[in-house]
């Protein structure tokens, strides 16, 4: 096993543990803000995982997927912030 493969496996394990923890928070989160934050963390983990895969395999084929995931994360955060802002104003 090369050092690159070992680092890739270690990164995959860490991303997996983080994704499981975020999914638990999405399911059990007591408030909508907890769930929204966990969803953002889950998207960030997916983006980092795809970026790590691109770096390990030395390609840029999934760059468009990274950009679309980042766009979804930004738009989702803005939409939830506006929704919560309207609830607080009432």
Short description:
The chain is mostly helical. The protein contains 3 helices and no strands. It has one domain: Helix Hairpins.
Summarize the topology:
Blueprint: H1 3-28, H2 32-57, H3 63-89
Helix pairs in contact: 1-2, 2-3
Written overview of the protein:
With 90 residues, the chain is an all-alpha fold. The chain has a single domain (3-89), classed as Helix Hairpins (Orthogonal Bundle). 88% of the residues lie in helices and 0% in strands. The protein is built from 3 helices and no strands. The longest helix is centred in the C-terminal third of the chain and has 27 residues, at 63-89. The protein starts with a helix and ends with a helix.
Task: Give the helices and strands as they follow along the chain.
Answer: HHH
CATH architecture: Orthogonal Bundle
State the low-pLDDT regions, or none: none
Rg, rounded, reads: 16 Å
Helix content: over 70%
Reported for the largest beta sheet, the result is: none
CATH topology: Helix Hairpins
Number of structural units classed as domains: 1
CATH class: Mainly Alpha
Average pLDDT for all residues: 92
Q: What is the approximate shape?
A: elongated
Distance between the termini: 59 Å
Instruction: Please report which band the strand proportion falls in: under 5%, 5-15%, 15-25%, 25-35%, 35-45% or over 45%.
Output: under 5%
Number of helices: 3
- Count of extended strands: 0
By secondary-structure content and strand pairing, the structural class works out as mainly alpha
């Amino acid at each position: 096993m090369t050092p690159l493969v070992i680092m890739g496996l270690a990164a995959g394990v860490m991303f997996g543990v983080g994704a499981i923890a975020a999914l638990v928070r999405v399911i059990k989160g007591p408030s909508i803000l907890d769930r929204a934050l966990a969803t953002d963390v889950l998207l960030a983990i997916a983006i980092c995982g795809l970026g790590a895969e691109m770096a390990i395999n030395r390609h840029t084929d999934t760059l468009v997927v990274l950009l679309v995931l980042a766009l979804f994360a930004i738009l989702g955060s803005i939409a939830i912030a506006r929704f919560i802002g309207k609830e607080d104003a009432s």
